[in-house]
Amino acid sequence: MRIKPPQRKKLENYLKEFYNYYPNEKYTVLHFVKYFKRRLKDNKDAWMGVSGDTGSGKSFFVLMCQILFGRPFSLIDNVSYIPKGNEIVDKFQKLKFQTFLVDEAAKEMRSVNWQSKEQQNVNTAAMTERYKNNWVFLNMPNFNEFTKSMRVSNILFRAIIPYRTAKFARVFIQRKSRNWRDSDPWADKFADEKYQKIQRRYKEISNDHIDSIERGLPNYVMDFIVPNLALILPEVAETYENLKIQSRIVNQDNLTSEKEKRNIWKNKYQDFMVKFTLFLNSHIVGKDKMSKKAVCHDLGISTETFNKYLNKPHGDSAKSMFHKNLLKEKES
């Protein structure tokens, strides 16, 4: 689905009316998009982490920004729903001065996947392909789940959605410290101390407490409220949800297929090991031959592993096959 000018205009008009009801708000999402669009025109990159609890509205907030950006925008070309393989880099490289959403960045950019080839390719793209001037949003429920390289080097800005009410979600924009020696470039330790003090004093952290703390952080840029995109452009929200469901089904099918393949190879390996162990036990291990310990030493396995496969069922049980082989040897 490609966003058309009338849809973008409808969103802009709705937002102008929406913010008229909140005259005390200093910034709006319109200011936010304008700020980053100007940054991209100055040949500066904009890789941004977007964090917030599930259901906080991260994806709809980013889609809103992408539509307001004013450049060609498609829910297929400009969004990676549940990325696999090199999908992130492949889609990113096709864009120029546009926006790109990695909707479930946890799949490829979590710290537990730092060693994967796909993760390394994303890191390389973030560091070397800034001339494309794309605004990249990386959605992750917890910002600390990103790899250290992404948190400290590649991601310069982050958006946090700490709460939502019945009418809007609150978004805070922060910039990483310019001090490259800073051990806490996002001021997380500083913020955590303030939250702990509030919690000890009031037991409950209110929305007003959150606003006060986040606005007082040294890396604070701006904050604003956003309405629910589904109320403004329901057809966009519905298409997005359907595409995400389809992507999840495809990924689950691929996962099942890969899991089945792994199980097949695992079973083949175990079958081979049972046969191989029985063979060694029948023809090599004995009083006048090599000891089991010597065989295991030469194979580089433990006697426990050897015994495990010796006792593992394979058609007839391994033990019964072993006894059959002993009987045959005695008869011969």
How would you summarize what this structure contains?
The protein is of the alpha/beta class. 54% of the residues lie in helices and 12% in strands.
Secondary-structure element series: HHEHEHEHHEHEEHHEHHHHH
CATH evolutionary superfamily of the largest domain: P-loop containing nucleotide triphosphate hydrolases
Biggest sheet, open or closed, and with what strands and sense?
7 strands, mixed
Alpha carbon gap, first and last residue: 77 Å
Broad shape: elongated
Query: What number is the mean pLDDT?
Result: 79
Q: Count the helices. How many?
A: 14
Identify the strand order in the major beta sheet.
2-3-4-1-5-6-7
Question: Could you please say which CATH topology of the largest domain applies here?
Answer: Rossmann fold
State the share of residues found in helices, binned by percent. 40-55%
Uncertain regions: pLDDT < 50 for 5+ in a row?
111-115
CATH C-level label of the largest domain: Alpha Beta
Question: What is the CATH architecture assignment of the largest domain?
Answer: 3-Layer(aba) Sandwich
| Count of all domains | 2
Give the percentage of residues in beta strands.
5-15%
The class by helix and strand makeup works out as alpha/beta
Number of strands: 7
Radius of gyration equals 29 Å
Map the helices and strands.
Blueprint: H1 5-20, H2 29-41, E1 46-52, H3 58-68, E2 79-80, H4 87-93, E3 99-102, H5 106-109, H6 117-128, E4 135-139, H7 148-154, E5 157-164, E6 169-175, H8 188-202, H9 207-215, E7 220-226, H10 229-232, H11 234-283, H12 292-299, H13 303-310, H14 318-331
Parallel strand pairs: 1-4, 1-5, 2-3, 3-4
Antiparallel strand pairs: 5-6, 6-7
Helix pairs in contact: 4-6, 8-9, 11-13, 11-14
